[in-house]
Amino acid sequence: MTDDAPVIVIVEDDPHIADLVELYLRRDGFRVYVASDGTAGLAVIRQRRPALIVLDLGLPGQLDGIDVCREVRTTSDVPIIVLTARDSETDSVLALELGADDYVVKPFSARELVARVKAILRRASGPRRDDRPVVELGSIVVDLRRHEVRRDGEVVPLASKELALLAFLVEHRGMALTRRQLLDGAWGVDWVGDERTVDVHVRQLRRKLGEGLRLETVWGTGYRLD
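User: That's the sequence. What structure does it adopt?
Assistant: Structure tokens below.
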């Protein structure tokens, strides 16, 4: 492990899970810092400026994982993978709506979690394409070169996955795309998870961009951007 290795912050109150995830991440060359509650987690995140956060939703104390996710998203678009229990689907959806990039259900494979960490970091550090266009969708302007979306001239803040999904829809506008195609295009072909993740992010795009975004549901297939 070198000083320039990516930093991962784990916010998890179960010491067995935290130790296992830390062990596997360190084996793969990451620098890892662990916090056991939300308050300590935010302090470590602000101090270490991680490349990615692994965040348990069921944290003890005044700040749970949802609170931490919401707070981080006010100042940073750092990738976040949330850890959730099987019976907390509502929390998982809320975390995605707040801008989490992925979620993993407990109990989980540490190898699978590390694979997801690597996949997200590869996409986050991928080459930028300066030849991508500026696309006008009525009152909405999608600037794929600057990774920026404006509505009526005002910048609309989007989470990284929301922007990636919108960019893929823009690049394939007019086509009916399945949820699997959208996942492969925006999340990467190596992403493993529930296809309903797409529905959550589509709802967020519609909420933030309003009726000007002509994003249609194609029943039995997926979605199409006109």
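The chain has eight helices and twelve strands.
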